[in-house]
Design goal:
single chain; about 160 residues; alpha+beta; Ubiquitin-like (UB roll); DNA polymerase, domain 1; 5-stranded mixed beta sheet; 6 helices; 5 strands
Length: about 160
């Protein structure tokens, strides 16, 4: 039975009629046309479907739509309009931290979640902050370098 779910999506209020147990990933991609979050494993292991829920990293493939009620969701589509995204994008490009791009939205949102909590992370902090995101192409050294570089270049943004 469909119900109305009201939440903030990328800074704008939305109300969507949906099944309460429908996955947020399907709601975003199929109903709202936001395709940056990808289905990787469908089990919350890879991070390809990552979104920020009230500023915290969440796997949209595990998140029932009913839990969005009254909350705030940020997808890469919303994040990429910010100055912090611009710094991360530049650093990921300079470090060669993007290849196929499948994991990139989740990696960028994981980096945003980490840097918003800890603007001066150690290498270990970055490893832990990105630990729920898998990359099979680039390798983690370049991604780690990109996030550490963004922390330096984005001084004062986070």
């Amino acid at each position: 039975m469909k119900g109305l779910v009201r939440f903030t999506l990328n800074g704008a209020p939305v109300a969507v009629a949906t099944e309460p147990l429908r996955r947020t990933l399907d709601l975003l991609r199929d109903d709202l046309g936001l395709t940056a979050a990808k289905e990787g494993c469908g089990e919350g292991e890879c991070g390809a479907c990552a979104v920020l829920l009230d500023g915290r990293l969440a796997n949209a493939c595990l998140l029932p739509a009913a839990l969005l009620e009254g909350r705030s969701v940020l997808t890469l589509e919303g994040f990429r309009t910010t100055p912090r995204f611009a710094v991360l994008k530049e650093c990921f490009e300079e470090a060669g931290a993007v290849q196929c791009g499948y994991c990139t939205p989740g990696m960028l949102l994981a980096a945003e979640a980490l840097l918003s909590r800890n603007p001066h992370p150690s290498e270990r902090d970055v490893r832990v902050g990105l630990s729920g995101n898998l990359c099979r192409c680039t390798g983690y050294a370049a991604i780690l370098e990109a996030v550490l570089d963004a922390a330096r270049k984005g001084e004062g943004l986070w």
